[in-house]
Specification:
The chain is mostly beta strands. It is built from no helices and ten strands. The protein is globular.
């Protein structure tokens, strides 16, 4: 088991792993989303922060707590959703936001990819 110091000021509200196990996404109650890359050093697994995006007051990503995260089947993209009624599609390698989906009338508590690259979300 590997232990990481993921987020400094708040607890993790969502965590997901890419299908190939090379990446992990963590998200928090203060809107921050981090992408981690798995490395092996001296036979031990080490998770290195690959990219960090968003966070309260940054103007990017979520503007309220992140409630869920999910990887696409190929591991190249992931979704996050939150109390701000948004679902965001991200690039797993760079951590860059690709697209925001709005239109939910309330907080979004689940989001998932289905049938390859289609995505669904809901309360």
């Amino acid at each position: 088991m590997a232990v990481i110091q993921a987020h400094r000021f708040t607890s993790i509200s969502a965590i997901t792993f890419s299908p190939d196990g090379r990446h992990m996404v963590t998200a928090t109650m203060d809107c921050e989303v981090k992408v981690w890359r798995r490395r092996t050093r001296g036979g031990e697994v080490v998770w290195e922060e690959n990219a960090a995006r968003g966070g309260a007051g940054t103007g990017e990503g979520h503007s309220a707590s992140v409630t869920t995260a999910a990887f696409s089947a190929d591991g190249h993209r992931f979704l996050t959703a939150g109390l701000d009624k948004k679902v965001i599609l991200w690039d797993a390698e760079s951590g860059q936001e690709l697209q925001q989906f709005s239109g939910h009338s309330d907080a979004v508590y689940c989001a998932a990819f289905m049938y390859g690259e289609q995505a669904g979300s809901g309360k």
